[in-house]
Each structure stands twice: as structure tokens, then as C-alpha cells.
Amino acid sequence: NLYILMNRFEPIMLRSQPMENVMRIIVTMMDQKILKNSHLRGTLPDVLTLALPVGAIASPDHMLVTKSFFTKNLIPRLLGLYVEIEFGENQFYGKFHTRYTISQILKFLWQHPVYHQSLRQYENTKIIRFVNMLCNDAVWLLDEALKQLEEVRTEQKAINSDQFARLPAYVRHRREAQFVQLQRTTRSQMNLAYASIQMIGFMSQGHRQPFLSKELVNRVAEMINYYINKLNGPQVTSLKFKDPKKFGFRPKALLRELIRIFLNFAQDSVFLNAVASDARSYDPQVFKKAADNLERCEIVSDAEHRKFHVVLERLETLAQKMKREEEALGEVPSKYLDPLMATIMYDPVMLPQSKVVVDRAVIKRHLLNSTTDPFNRSVLHMEDLVEMPELRSEILAFVESRKKIAAAGANSEKSDCKR
Fold first, then answer.
1. In the predicted structure, residue 375 carries a pLDDT above the cut 80
2. Could you tell me the CA-to-CA distances from 296 to 262, 289, 347 in Å, in that order?
3. Which residues make beta-bridge pairs with 359?
4. Across-strand partners of 337?
5. What does 387-399 look like in DSSP terms, one character per residue?
6. How many Cα atoms are found within 13 Å in the side-chain-facing hemisphere of 388?
7. pTM metric for this prediction
8. CA neighbor of 182 nearest in space, from 161, 142, 154, 140
9. Confidence class of residue 383 from pLDDT cuts 50, 70 and 90?
10. What would you measure as the largest C-alpha separation in the chain, in angstroms?
């Protein structure tokens, strides 16, 4: 607290002092084994920001970049705290403040290749947990912010109406004060949401695999699909109102960030498959409209725009292929479907306590958020899952047989056409 107060009132004096030993202590205390209270650890990143250069520009000679203590420990401590604070006493705004601060530190660190190497050496399961929390934050914050923007639009119309002008003065003053508060909270929410989306963008550069793991690829694809749809589809009219910048809403910047993340992930076929199979939000017409908006408003570079068009063509082909395969499968026996997602279980496993059979990828995603059986809330860990090899073989044989039947039917139609 002393350092934070000094930074507020005497920043020049503070920054003129040697900081390395203080920062070593701060990074050491971020270890859960040393300081167990996550609320206290959640305040430490604020002190760590005091070591960042003005403007957080790349600084190859900075102590956080040149000293092995920091390059070895910062990534595991920051990513670990990002996850652990979810389950501590530091809830809601305190939690999001800590995570926002961590995002700003990571944004500086990510400008230096040594930290990319540090992430590669971090345990994969822990990275996936971090990415899951990051996506959870991005979705929750952006959803809440967009809901508040819709409220802003409604309230702006009401305040500018003749009916509002006829209200008693004390009622108008109260409504106007509430609107000012709404402006503050919406701007704060949008800034936090944008920071989360930005972090997905820069951390996935060269490190796509955690985002595209079996547990998370569908979640990531659905998230990006949904917000591209929201910013370009019919719902976008609910986000049009006066002075959006006052409320922290920068639709062009947000769409640019989403498109660049999309193009980065689109290099992997597993992501494109997940996008094309998302029946809720993937709409070829809306994505074409997004492409038109990108060009008309000059949101991305010409090269990115061309690349986006190429990806859209691939997506349409994939979506049509998936539709044919789905039709070929016909009615799927219920015992082959995951009870949580109603999708085919290509890798079925049984939960030991409830005895329910689910798809491995679905339950792995659930366990990232809660180590419980979703059907009876008993404690559940990945190593407890019971393999179901016979059912797996049965499901794969069913899918393969239906594909063969569909292929034979298609060949027969071609032969009839030739005759």
C-alpha cells in the first residue's frame, strides 16, 4: 500500500529508487505456497506495475527481461494467480481488477521473446486452465457490457423524449444521476472486456495450441462466432446510440481484434471445423456482411481482408460437407449421444459415482471450472474417469457404416445421371 500511495503522490521520487529487490520480494510472495491468502496476493500485481517502463513499451534492457529470476518465475506466478484468485475471497470487482492488472503486465512481457519461451515451458494442463478462465472472463464481461449498452440506448431515448421533459425535476435529476453511474460502470466493464479480448489476441500469437485443445476449441470458436455475429448481424441495431466512446464502446477496434484472433486460429483446420459446426452463431450471410464492413470501414489491412474472404470460402465448403454428413447419420441412438451436449460421443467415458456415460472432451471442459460430477456433485478428477472402449468402437462403427451408406447412395445417383 505504501508503494502504491507513493506512486500516486510522488511517482518521480519512487521511480528514482532501485526497484529490483522489491520486485523480487513481490514475485516471491505471489507463490501460493508462500502466501496462501489469494486476496493479499491479488494486490501484488499492482506493485509489480511500478516496475514497468512508462507506456509499457518494449525494453530489451529492462530488469524484468534481463534477469533470469523474473524470466523464470513471472509467467507461472502471474498465470497461476490469474486462475487461483477465482476461488479465493477476492471476488467480483477485486478479482477483475487483479486480472486486468495481470493483463497489462503480460502485455509488456509479451513484447519480449524470452517470455514466449517461458510459456512453452509452463505445464500444459495449467495453461489450459488459464486459457479457460481467460475465455470465461471475456465472455462474461463482454456479455454484461453489451447488455448495459442496450440499456444505455434505451435510457438515452427516454431522456431525450418529450415525456421525460414533463417529469418532475427531482425525478429527472435522479434519472440523470443514474444514467451518469450507468456510463461509468459500462465504460469500466467495456475496458475490462476489451483487455481480456486483447490478451487472447496477443497470447495466442505463436501459441494457438492451448486455445485449440479438445477441451476448449469449440468454446473458443463459439465465442468468436457469437461476437462477430453480434457486431454484424441483425442484433447490431441494439448497439447503436449517441456518443459510444463515452461508454468505452469501440466497435471497430473490438471487431478488428476479433477478426485478427479468428484469422490466427483459422490456420488450424480443427478451429475451422469447430466454427462450421456451430449452428447457433455461424451464419455465412452474417460473415459475408462482416467482410463487407471490414472493407467499407477500413477496419483491417487489405491483406487481412483478402485472407478473411479465403477463409469464408473454406468455411462454406466445410459447413455444406458437415450438413451432408449429419443428414447421412440420420437418427442417432440416444445411448451414443452425450447427455450434456446432445452430440455424438466419439470418446465415451463413465463417471464413477453417477455411472453416467459422457464424452471425454465435454467432461474435461466441465472439470476446468468445477471438479465435481455434474449429475450428483460428488468430487471428480480426470484420473477417475472410466474408459469405455467397447462403446467407443460401437459408436465409431455406427458412424462409419452410415458414411458408407451415404457414399454408396451418392455414387448411385451419379451413375443414374450419366445414364
1. yes
2. 19, 10, 45
3. 348
4. 344
5. E-HHHHHHHHHHH
6. 22
7. 0.86
8. 154
9. very high
10. 90
